[in-house]
Amino acid sequence: MAPQSASTRTAPAEQTLPADRFLNRELSWLDFNARVLELAEDDALPLLERVKFLAIFASNLDEFFMVRIAGLKRRHSTGLTVRSPDGLTIREQLTRVTERTQDLVHRHANVFLKDVTPLLEESGIRIVHWAEIGDTDATRLREYFRDQVFPVLTPLAVDPAHPFPYISGLSLNLAVSVRDTDTGTSHFARVKVPNNVPRFVPVGQADTSATFLPLEDLIAAHLPQLFPGLEVVAHHLFRVTRNADLEVEEDRDEDLLQALERELARRRFGPAVRLEVTDAMDPQILELLLSELEIGTQDVVVVPGLLDLASLWQLYDLDRPELKDEPFVPATHPRLSEGETPQSVFAMLREGDVLVHHPYQSFATSVQRFIEQAAADPNVLAIKQTLYRTSGDSPIVNALVDAAEAGKQVVVLVEIKARFDEEANISWARELEKAGCHVVYGLVGLKTHCKTALVVRREGGVIRRYCHIGTGNYNPKTARIYEDLGILTADPRVGADLTDLFNTLTGYSRQTAYRTLMVAPHGVRNGLLDKIRREMRHAAEGRPAGIRFKVNSLVDEQIIDALYEASIAGVPVELLIRGICALRPGVAGLSENIEVRSIVGRFLEHSRVMSFTNGGDPEFWIGSSDLMHRNLDRRVEVLLKVCDERAREELGATLDRAMAPEVRCWTLGPDGEWTRSGECDYQAELIHQAGEQAG
User: What is the pTM of this model?
Assistant: First the structure.
């Protein structure tokens, strides 16, 4: 199973399409993060939910710089002159991204400083500076500094005997200027703000106080204790972002685990790609930082107020339910619940497929219970599963360990290249191996991103296979905040397909054709292109035709061009895209039959659904693949054809509701601008609907 070559991505279209038909993917991603920021600006939301979206915006932007901007800078440093599909050079992309980012950062800071902070104060939640603290509280904070903070601080001098220290990525740092009072000589030192101490320190009694002092303020107030005998002249806060995009050189003769561990050790020393400073930064200190970090002024982001607002999660965690969304408890799927007695998942699946929609329907009482029952069932012979990301204390992993220790054959494909989860996944892989599981790390050159589980069970002398295929990770924590879909099925065709797929992932099989699956890197793009063209034929021959996609990102040029051609052929195309969209809808003669909308809300819209009208016999596919080069060419992805009639009806109804004109969403215009519209909260409706079904 080898990656599809890059040359296959730009097959000539049947007709000439305009050169300006693509939107820039990096700017489109920034537009997505701007939609997150709009939720922080929305005064109709509970106050701490707005704080949550401020934190999400900040952490999103951190990852964008660590990966996407780092990648652009790496390519720029090689002297490549390649243009993006929208025609921009790498330099032009970096320039536009820098300008757009600085605008968003200022907007983000202003929302926090001028809007959210005053409202927090009205609600009794305050962030103060050292000068605002009374004597009694100051005494208590001095003791806290002495006992909890001072011991972990390490001031690092910079002089001929002390080279400029390594600045770790995403760490907060104080640049300190000190003077020798005897000689008058000035020196520079760096003090790292520790990340294992709470960023916001309670002022007053910790169990009652909702007043907080930023940790960097506490440290700054006590700098003379770190530099006794010297005069502290000034201090300035800064933060560095480094390239964190791993490039593992995979060799068939080298242990992938060892190669990845070596690369992880290098990642912390990646080149700097962003320097965040406050608007009070001293120009001379800034010049020193730029020189030592080997970056330019274009890489400086000036932030009004506090740096690193991702730390606002600490405020969101306050026990103030009146300032948050109403608590929501996922409902057990009606077919998996019978009073106080949990149903046997296997018995239910023999009666028909179960479509689960998280977080509205519980992951714990569906997918997790499926794996746990399989692990405990003496009739189960084998469990095979892919793991891309899971939680710190994973009941799924625990169940697989129990199954292996009970003598079952357990095969787990752990994708140790899952970005930012590499170390956790290496740890899981070793724990599973220790328990006796057969652990596989995937295929050379490909990430295994599909979400699949196969259970083999003996029933009265007959072997039956039970399956789960989903759009989200086997992670019970994210399953409560990510919107995802999954199918639990005993369909023998799906069981046969997953058996073939696992043989490909664990052995040397070259399987490329499946009964109910499309599998990347060979089958997803070509399969979707075939189905788009089929809709065009239906339209040409007067039969019902239509395309509806729900994905996180749409970037692949071949898919986009096929959708343009479908629009020109008269096929209505509805796209629900949470994040990046490089397609330009509503352009006369090109895409006037295409509508693009985005829902960003309480839950992260994460499911991928592809629907085709198919001449009146609707076809639905769900799975793990977004419509991007990496998914279609460099990952093992799975899309499942949904065959169960009840599940098809449920999927159709879900898409109908999500794409209803009154639903609150953002709509993309032909100029690339997103406009907010609609009043109905789609996610709130689904919460209510799930509660009614469970009740």
Answer: 0.92
